[in-house]
Amino acid sequence: MNQLVLMVGPLIYSLFFAVLFLQSGLDKCFDFKGNLAWLEPHFSKTFFARFVRQLLILLTCFELASGLSFLLAVPAILMGSFNFFFIARALAGITLLFLFTGQRLAKDYAGASTIAIYFGVWFLAFFGFFGL
Hints:
Layout: H1 2-30, H2 32-42, H3 52-78, H4 83-105, H5 109-127
Helix pairs in contact: 1-2, 1-3, 3-4, 4-5
């Protein structure tokens, strides 16, 4: 019973972040042109302006890698292994840092505050669960 209790938190966090990152990454894949059209003016006054396409591809890769890692963490956690959960938490932290940095540089402070909320949830997942 104690083992199951220790798994509930990581399972819920893994599913939460799998949905978050996979939906976002897949949206960028299926509507790349639309996302690019929105991001180009968003970053037009930053030093990212010339690299929006490349950065969008990089961000998409990180979001998909983060989401897939969390998805793979679910069966691994059920089998008693937290390796994928650790990898997924690290990738998610990097991905959220990319998103937050972009929003701040674009001076989209409302967008940055939304990312900060996700980062708070990530912080709990990364440093919680008794060091898992």
